[in-house]
Amino acid sequence: MIKEINILFMKNFKSGTFINQGTYKSFQPALINNSWVIENMELLSLLSQADRHLGRLDMYSEYIPNIDLFISMHVIKEAIQSNKIEGTHTSIEDALLDKEHVSVEKRDDWEEVQNYISALNKAIESLKEIPFSSRLIKATHKTLLKGVRGKHKQPGIFRTSQNWIGGASINDATFIPPIHNSLHELMSDLEKFAHNNEVFFPDLLKIALIHYQFETIHPFLDGNGRVGRLLITLYLIEKEILKKPILYLSDFFERNRTLYYDNLTRVREKNDITQWFKFFLVGIIETAKKGIDTFDKILKLKNDIENGVQSLGSRSVSALKIMDYLYQRPIIDAPIVIELTKLSAPTAYKLINELENLGVLREVTGGKRKKIYLFDKYLKLFY
Length: 383
Known about the structure:
- This protein has helices at about 40-65, 70-85, 90-95, 105-125, 135-145, 185-195, 205-215, 225-240, 250-255, 255-270, 275-310, 315-330, 335-340, 345-355, 375-380; strands at about 5-10, 15-20, 25-30, 35, 330-335, 360-365, 370-375.
- The protein is mostly helical.
- Helix 13 (about 335-340) packs across helix 14 (about 345-355).
- The longest helix has about 35 residues, at about 275-310.
């Protein structure tokens, strides 16, 4: 028996239907697990460019020694920017601090960023055993909302009531997602589309469509935007388009926030999926280029510092141990230096002073005790 496949030309795309629910209209998105036909030549050109730049970025995973040292900072920046889109404001410096060093008024925002980092890291690790699926999405959402402001909004559970976006109430909402009774069908369709190998559709367009569809379904009571952006990296990792998690689009989305939301809305209201695809691919291209530039600057900085610490003689080995730590977490204090190097306290303080003189560390507390130092030049590469 030949399985019937629904062939969908993008120019004929219908995003869904607004359904009268009495006092409001919810949006019921069309199913996406179809065979798609691309007709737009500009889109094909952007797709080719995105594939090329993403391939160049992925090459860094192979030839940069110890690339895992530098990935944690990419994750921190992604967490900050994704949360910023939702109205949370935490600086990179604040995100690096331990909880007790964060001011009380900033602590809620700090905790949400830490949860995002934890959720992303756990999800990437889980991909070794769990496929890109509703199960993985729910587990990621549960980590994201654990103990933070959304902790009472059913973490890890698809909603069982109506939600809405914008407005003080559902009556003045800017967008009302589908009713909860249809979530199982919609998420099942999304999952099948992600793993449909029977028909060809370029993976970058596939995850662009998955992201749009997920944000339209809005399956959780809270945290949908952050989870939806996490899915992009998880999909690229699972499909082995990236060997390491080194591409994150939240910075691009945050810098183009109005366009981001406008293009998602344009799909629903004008059936214009092509414009969303173009915007998404431009994001891939710009982010990949920026990632390549950042890695080039990291390698140059690393080389310059390694040449500089040679002047420290016997302490250069200890200095390099500190550098390996700083590439992962560019903030440090004397107790950590002592623990890493096994040096005596006086020698550790002398080494810190020498790293300050070399321009590697900058003291940021201004106090005489419990001083904290930043690896300033490295941090600036992520702004």
